[in-house]
TrEMBL record:
Stretches of the chain forming a coiled coil according to its record: 91-134
SUPFAM superfamilies xref list: Epsilon subunit of F1F0-ATP synthase C-terminal domain (SSF46604), Epsilon subunit of F1F0-ATP synthase N-terminal domain (SSF51344)
Segments forming domain ATP synthase epsilon subunit C-terminal: 88-131
Species this chain originates from: Halorhodospira neutriphila
Superkingdom to which the source organism belongs: Bacteria
The protein, known as: ATP synthase epsilon chain
Family statement drawn from the similarity comment of this UniProt entry: Belongs to the ATPase epsilon chain family.
Gene3D superfamilies: ATP synthase delta/epsilon subunit, C-terminal domain, F0F1 ATP synthase delta/epsilon subunit, N-terminal
Classification lineage: Bacteria, Pseudomonadati, Pseudomonadota, Gammaproteobacteria, Chromatiales
Domain ATP synthase F1 complex delta/epsilon subunit N-terminal: 4-83
UniProt topology in membrane: Peripheral membrane protein
Localization per Swiss-Prot or TrEMBL: Cell membrane
Keywords: ATP synthesis, Cell membrane, CF(1), Coiled coil, Hydrogen ion transport, Ion transport, Membrane, Transport
Function text: Produces ATP from ADP in the presence of a proton gradient across the membrane.
Subunit and partners: F-type ATPases have 2 components, CF(1) - the catalytic core - and CF(0) - the membrane proton channel. CF(1) has five subunits: alpha(3), beta(3), gamma(1), delta(1), epsilon(1). CF(0) has three main subunits: a, b and c.
């Protein structure tokens, strides 16, 4: 089985560099699965989970808040606005961000930027989904 070189980089740090047999990422138009020899692709990322499966079947989960995904036949680069290892997500902060965003959406005032609030809500929900998936995998 062949592998891809995978790099996940945020503005703060390089989170992952190594080989993988499969990468699943949240592209703007829907999740994409990338295997070795994938066609070249450059797309924007939406907030969500990036899953890396190594050749031995071990999986690593990361949360990316958005950014770019570059795919070449033998490499994948995730250039994330913000990225974090799934087990490092602050669940309490994500829940609080979700609560605040939902509260703002309930307010019927002109000063509320609904697009911004919806983006904040989407990020919080994506973080919570990533944590949920991490817990499901841990039970296996």
């Amino acid at each position: 089985m062949s592998t891809l070189q995978v790099d996940i980089v945020s503005a703060e740090e390089q989170l992952y560099t190594g080989q993988a047999s499969l990468v699943v990422a949240p592209a703007e138009e829907g999740d994409v699965g990338i295997a070795p020899r994938h066609a070249p692709l450059l797309t924007r990322l939406r907030p969500g989970e990036v899953r890396i499966t190594q050749e031995d079947g071990e999986e690593y989960l990361y949360y990316a808040s958005g950014g770019l995904l570059e795919v070449q036949p033998s490499s994948v680069t995730v250039l994330a606005d913000t990225a974090v290892r799934a087990h490092d997500i602050d669940e309490a902060a994500a829940l609080e961000a979700k609560r605040r965003a939902e509260e703002k959406l309930q307010v019927q005032k002109d000063e509320v930027d609904y697009g911004q609030v919806q983006a904040e809500l989407a990020e919080a929900m994506a973080q919570l989904r990533t944590l949920e998936n991490l817990r499901k995998r841990a039970k296996r």
